[in-house]
Amino acid sequence: MLMSFIPACGQCRWCSSGQSYLCDNGAYTMRGPQLDGTFRVHDKKSNDVGQFCLLGTFSEYTVIPDISAIRLDPAYDMTKVCIVGARSRPVSAPL
Ligand SMILES: [Zn+2]
């Protein structure tokens, strides 16, 4: 699985027209909470902690929206996928 810093809902006008990099949900990635307005990460004092671009990839564990997850075909060469994952969303990724 890859995590995309720009979620793609697959339903908005941008996603429907093949321009998922403009997904309406992308406007909410810098707010802190998840798309539903809740926080999934908390510090030791139970304070809410925002996840950068909804991902929080610098943590050991994370919870992300399903529209930020990209399922990969197991046939992909994972040594190359990790490079793609670090740079962009693969065009052929199923949504
Ligand atoms: Zn969308």
Largest beta sheet: strand ordering: 1-4
Instruction: Characterize the main sheet.
Output: 2 strands, antiparallel
How many helix segments? Answer: 2
Judged by helices, strands and strand pairing, the structural class is little secondary structure
The separation of the N and C termini measures 12 Å
Mean pLDDT: 84
The counted number of beta strands is: 4
What share of residues is helical?
10-25%
Q: Into how many domains do the coordinates divide?
A: 1
Ligands in the model, by name, code or SMILES, are:
zinc ion
Strand and helix order = EHEEEH
Parts with pLDDT < 50 across at least 5 consecutive residues: 88-95
Fraction of residues in β-strands: 5-15%
Overall geometric form: flat
Quaternary organisation of the protein chains: single chain
Rg over alpha carbons: 14 Å
What features would you describe in this structure?
Mean pLDDT is 84; it is low at 88-95. The protein is 15% helix and 8% strand. Strands 1-4 form a two-stranded antiparallel ribbon. The radius of gyration is 14 Å and the shape is flat. The chain has one domain (2-87). The protein starts with a strand and ends in an 8-residue tail after the last helix. A hairpin with a 5-residue loop joins strand 2 (41-42) and strand 3 (48-49). It has 95 residues and is largely without helices or strands. The protein has two helices and four strands.
Short description:
This protein has helices at 13-16, 78-87, and strands at residues 2-3, 41-42, 48-49, 69-70.
